[in-house]
Amino acid sequence: MNRTKARLSDGREIVYYDEAPGRVPAADQRGLAPVEPVCETRRDPLTGDRVTITAHRNTRTFLPPADQCPLCPGGPASEIPDPSYDVAVFENRFPSFDVRTPPVPPSIDGVERARGAGRCEVVCFTDDHSASMALLPLSRVRTVIDAWADRTAELSAIPGVAQVYVFENRGVEIGVTLHHPHGQIYAYPFTTPRTERMLASAAANPDLFAGVLKAERAGGRTVLAGEHWTAYVPAAARWPVEVHLTPHRHVPDLAALDPGERDELAVLYRDLLRRCDALYGAPLPYVAGWHQAPVGEGRDLLRLHLELFSIRRAPDKIKYLAGSESGMAAWINDVPPEDIAARLRAAGG
Amino acid sequence: MNRTKARLSDGREIVYYDEAPGRVPAADQRGLAPVEPVCETRRDPLTGDRVTITAHRNTRTFLPPADQCPLCPGGPASEIPDPSYDVAVFENRFPSFDVRTPPVPPSIDGVERARGAGRCEVVCFTDDHSASMALLPLSRVRTVIDAWADRTAELSAIPGVAQVYVFENRGVEIGVTLHHPHGQIYAYPFTTPRTERMLASAAANPDLFAGVLKAERAGGRTVLAGEHWTAYVPAAARWPVEVHLTPHRHVPDLAALDPGERDELAVLYRDLLRRCDALYGAPLPYVAGWHQAPVGEGRDLLRLHLELFSIRRAPDKIKYLAGSESGMAAWINDVPPEDIAARLRAAGG
């Protein structure tokens, strides 16, 4: 893996991860004005959870025509000046968190307030506008994993970053605003609410992740089992399609994976994505998110794992989050986890 | 308010709340087979949250043509046998929780498991297929409030019910499966995760709800202020449109409201809904959910309040819950709460 760093015309960083050496980055000719992000977090007094307010994002790029795709390489509208790439990662032009964001007062009407001083990146893993992660060659998936690991290490080192979340939103059904396949990385300036819950569970039961993995491997919902990784539909799945992919070794993040674990992950992850697309005979809309340990407190408690889920509950039906889920955080799942595990196993590799 | 109880042909209960006396319920001629719900809850070991699995619901009625609407009164497909109604509440044919659900083993692969033994109801508040709550006469809104209060009291008395959630999902954009306007009630057999968070905050700060109300009334995000109620956009709003409507008196639930509070609520709630529809010049898709104190532990801690929110972030744009919200419970809101409060105030009454 060959890493090359450059800057876009507005000062944002772009990092190429190439399978062959020799990248000489092309200059960004667009002459963009510097981004002026306005990101802040406020702590909801009723729940204690942090909410992020990002006034500048409501005008972000929304499903542009293919000839103006910012992720296809080299065009006049492109975020990636080079005419081709393997993996290219750049700072999001419409970030939810950014270290450039201006200061805010420490509170508003009694509610704790802080700068949303993190970093958001876009991860492009193919210059083919109509490809997908599931259709990449294994060597490319392996490069993506190295890029994820490197980004995790770099972003974790930014002062104030508390947690790095590597994820892919796939499909217009879940609100993807660019058709070109891509992932994202959020370097949060706080530990996320879902992770806080997991840390509390792990603090009460230090055997939590090992115990769940052992029970799931013995249960009936395993989808894939390798030497280093197991993929299973969790017993208490919230979503009509949900799979967790968990390493057998207790590691905090992607950067801590050794080469053998990365090699197997490339094989199993692509296999899992292909099964997901086979489930309904069409590309599955999904969120695939890497839960990583926080940078600071609780780092030893949380085990790296992928949570992949989809809102598709039938070939022609979507699971919407409405009153119970969005209002009360009480998930109702119409699809038994045992059924979806059996169907993913049967979907072939 | 005149309450009349009856049974549908499959044994489900229907309750009419009429403004005039004299209802003699018509018989349900459909001869439906008894419902056989299969509802269970499983406790996610990673977060401690309960997830509900409802295998029978994946085939529920989905956007039927208007002539087969189950909520229009008296037709052959109708759930409401009478030819007209003011407010009619009946047990959901496709419930997420039901006391009739069969037993389950106490665990599965180490994960705690229980019957989903609660009750789900549908609240019809107009027999006009194309009406909306915002367009009802005030007298009807007042009857709806009495019906909500009565249902809350009745459902809270069912053994095993821990919390009663009265809500309306409005709009196909959030997955409503019936066009005819209606609300719902979920009587959960557990305290919901969001409420658990609020109870933890209130246990740490007994002044929580009074303090937030006081600060919000003094802040710049008030939308409506009455003698008994205040509506405001919370400082840490998660959604592009979000309004909390909170009573000035610390009451646990709708059943505890006195007549004066109910009278003013009818006026303010309808006013609020009309402002919401005026915001983008079109019916706003929304979830309007009543947060009520649990029946048992924590009952004195939580103050009744409405949380109304919408996923609409612009006339032509929806806020989707994707990686950060659905994966990490970290909400990103593109619309500053101060802006939406000013726009709702300007939207007129």
Which key terms come to mind for this protein?
homodimer, HIT family, subunit A, eleven-stranded antiparallel sheet, four-stranded antiparallel sheet
Number of strands of chain A: 18
Percent strand of chain A: 25-35%
Q: What's the assembly state of these chains? A: homodimer
Q: What is the terminal separation of chain A in angstroms?
A: 27 Å
Largest interface, counted with CB-CB under 8 A?
A-B, 82 and 82 residues
Main β sheet profile of chain A: 11 strands, antiparallel
Query: What is the name of the CATH architecture of the largest domain in chain A?
Result: 2-Layer Sandwich
Task: Explain what the structure shows.
- The structure is a homodimer of 349-residue chains.
- Chain A has two domains: 2-192, HIT-like (HIT family, subunit A, 2-Layer Sandwich), CATH 3.30.428; 194-346, HIT family, subunit A (2-Layer Sandwich).
- Chain A is globular, with a radius of gyration of 20 Å.
- Chain A contains six helices and 18 strands.
- In chain A, a hairpin with an 8-residue loop joins strand 12 and strand 13.
- With 349 residues, chain A is of the alpha+beta class.
- An eleven-stranded antiparallel sheet of chain A has the order 1-2-5-8-10-9-14-15-13-12-11, sandwiched between helices. In chain A, strands 4-3-7-6 form a four-stranded antiparallel sheet, with no helix packed on it.
- At the A-B interface, strand 4, strand 9, strand 10, helix 2 and helix 3 of A face strand 4, strand 9, strand 10, helix 2 and helix 3 of B.
- Strand 4 (50-54) of chain A pairs parallel with strand 18 of chain B.
